[in-house]
Amino acid sequence: MARMHVETTINGESAEFLCQPGESLLDALRNELNLTGTKEGCNTGDCGACSVMLDGRLVPSCMVLAPEVEGRSVGTIEGVAQGDELHPLQQKFLEHAALQCGICTPGFIVAAKALLEKNPDPTEEEARYWLAGNLCRCTGYDKIIRAVLDTAAEMNGTNGAATNGAAG
Amino acid sequence: MSERKFKQVGTRPIRHDGLEKVTGRANFGADYSLPGMLQGAVLRSPHAHAKIVSIDTSPALEVEGVKAVISGRDFPIPTREGDRQQYGDVPDLANNVIARDKVLYHGHAVAAVAATTIEAAQRGAEKIRVEYEVLPPVLDIESAIAPDAAILHDDLVCQGPAPVPSSPTNVARRTLLSGGDIEQGFADSDVVVEREFTTPMVHQGYIEPHATVVETLENGNVTIWCCTQGPFAVRGLTASVTGIELSKIKVIPSEIGGGFGGKTTIYLEPLAVELSRRSGRPVKLVMSREEVFRATGPTSAGRVRVKMGARKDGRLVAAEVVMYYEAGAFPGSPVGAGCMCALSAYCFDHFVIDGYDVVTTKPRVAAYRAPGAPIAAFGVEQVVDEVAERLGLDPIELRLLNAVQENDVAPYGPKYQAIGFRETLEEARKHPNYSATLGPNQGRGVASGFWFNAGLQSSASVHMNEDGTAIVTTGNPDIGGSRAAQAIMVAEELGIGAEQVVPLVGDTESAGYTDLTGGSRTAYATGMAIIEASQDIVRQLRERAAKIWGVELDGVAWEDGRAVPSNGAASDVEPLNLAEIAAQMGATGGPIVAQAAVSPPMAGPGFATHLCDVEVDQETGKVTVLRYTTVQDAGKAVHPSYVEGQMQGGAAQGIGWALNEEYIFDENGVVENPGFLDYRMPVASDLPMIDTVIVEVANPLHPYGVRGVGETPIVPPLACVANAVAAATGKRFTDLPISPPRVLAAIDGD
What we know:
The structure holds 2 protein chains of 2 kinds.
Chain A: E1 4-10, E2 13-19, H1 25-32, E3 51-54, E4 57-60, E5 73-75, H2 88-95, H3 105-118, H4 124-130, H5 142-155, H6 160-167
Parallel strand pairs in A: 1-5
Antiparallel strand pairs in A: 1-2, 3-4, 3-5
Helix pairs in contact in A: 2-5
Chain B: H1 18-22, E1 38-44, E2 50-56, H2 58-61, E3 66-71, H3 90-97, E4 102-103, E5 109-115, H4 118-127, E6 129-134, H5 141-145, E7 171-179, H6 182-187, E8 191-199, E9 211-216, E10 222-226, H7 231-242, E11 249-253, H8 269-279, E12 283-286, H9 289-295, E13 302-310, E14 316-328, H10 335-342, E15 350-359, H11 373-391, H12 395-402, H13 421-430, E16 442-451, E17 458-464, E18 470-474, H14 482-494, E19 501-505, H15 522-549, E20 556-559, E21 562-565, E22 576-577, H16 578-583, H17 585-588, E23 593-598, E24 606-616, E25 623-633, H18 640-659, E26 690-695, H19 717-729, H20 740-748
Parallel strand pairs in B: 1-12, 10-11, 14-15, 18-19, 25-26
Antiparallel strand pairs in B: 1-5, 2-4, 2-6, 3-5, 7-15, 8-13, 9-10, 9-12, 13-14, 16-24, 17-18, 17-23, 20-21, 21-22, 24-25
Helix pairs in contact in B: 7-8, 10-11, 11-19, 12-13, 14-15, 18-19
């Protein structure tokens, strides 16, 4: 079967690739573009390891056909850090030890970034429900949720630790 | 042991491999590719139990793009000569990797294809013609041990103490531990509680499916990239299954996306090796999630009967535990470990522990975090709870009255050295969550857990860089922050910061032999080797300083990362720091390197006590976990964040096992829920924060007092959740999972 030519934008840069008509965006990212930071955990849209942004919307890339991104904008984990500066979420994941094996981490960071863009000051419950589409089997989610809430506090200038320090 | 003041141990540096993992750069199993690489697909059995009458692989080769096809008959006939005791039974392993004469579960591999694209490989696999003679499936313990059961293995002889079956059987082994006089013990008891429990088959649920890339060279050398807990195990096992000399195989472990015991064995590697040998091209094989569920090792379904007697004063007197664990297609359930753990937390003068390893036509089980122990604890810890209830005693008080301590003897033999079980109970009792107010339809559960932990073999090498930084290399894949712990241990000895140490995971040719990352053994055993090698480095650094100062070795002490004069020698010189000595390595004797190896026969056991509060929805039967608290003796927490992470992660897995997770088989032995939608693992909105309390009772076997921490946390939760639900509903739940339909049926039974 002839492969399709797709022109798109990935992490702000124009990109093009060839793919099978039935190929998933996940496979195209990983196999055609060597963007292997996006992970496959299930290929059925249930685990969130392949989370990416498509025109500003959080999607599991295994559930998107690669040809569908023609003319659209895709954001992956590789585009989250800016130059040599980590996104605050990435830094907080490190500080809170919010990863153990790390396979789910790119998906969690992409999904959490989408959460904070939509809701900069989520409650714990809102964070837990937003991230319910991302499976982590190692951490029990505790440190992940803390990292996300701490990131929100820091980005809003209401960092809990800093406030306590000033008060103390 | 001395009360050592630690400078690095107990701190929380950012893990060394973290940057790669939060940016997507880290390479996991499926992230490797090689030029000219083929993609593989595996043909799997559509039957749970059948003889393979014939296989015709030739039609696959007619598919465009297909370069190689193999079946079980392309592998050497497995013999027991290749057995390596630590890895289990090689013929069974080989027959599990690819069926030869018989398929023993739905999804059992029967053939494999390599092609230029994955689609071509899958088309090729579909063309393979297999003729089966279908046999009756054997899908539970009752039918497996029935007199007229279909026999899985004609040559299976039951091992263990009499009475055991003498004719062909599905019972592979009996384990029997006993002490005292059990009948007298029950006669001496004021209260006797007896119940039977069942747990379903559950999966480790690591998020990364198994994956491998294999390249074979013209000289027969083989390189395997794969996600594994044990690269040396992959090398040894693949050599045994393929007949290739061990020294011709090099295994390079990728980053590993979870394992929990499930990546301690092999599935794809021999298939990829053989496909690569035949095609002369690198071959990649990656499992789908469905294949992971159908064809890799979950842990056993179990049936556990517990009878326990106690005196009115709360003293436990006697216990009888009879356990049947399903091994799946080949012998080797963790029932032996279950027997070792079942009663090891309490003192019983009279006990019998009787365990049976039973084969069924289901996937061959693999290790899963404290293998066997949670199933036993699900029964024992609920019965302990019920004994406390019957005696009107607080469940922690009853446990404290009976908790094992130093010098007590475990049912499986060893005498405990210093252990922290009582401390976990005391800390749990003091925790605010133990006195938080409960509302309507809410209940609180307590359960404890024991795991013996493993020692096994480890090695480590440490070498100095010219700028005074150090590199430590081991053969243990980093599954949850072990690199950071290893760097901390080197830093502690050298007197530098953990960030000045680079921890590396070596491959089977760059690291010395090391057993797998598992058994909660890495920080303990590999840590011992690292500390020993680091101490050797310090001795060499002192030697170099002595040489520079022109004094004897005992004239140099090592303090805070510096050589300082001691014993009155060279008192006029300035201390030399590590960087200064390292800069002069070439002139003072050459590179500074050290290695060490250990094989501790024992490890200090781990104990934990958990608290769980639940609320039960009276209309839907749904159980919500409101609070969860884990208290565990870590001996010494090297990196407390990752110790807490183990405690939280184990608790979460256990909560999933208790409330949601189960393999559902149809009457033909086909798994009906082989995906994350229907095999429902906990998600973030299912859980509360999981509170942790680390207790530190130093393990006398380790120089820092470290105990393994990874496995113990999954032992208590099954019973802890069940005890909480019992408190909330007044109903005992003896069958897992405690799912809404079961809860609703129990409530509506009123």
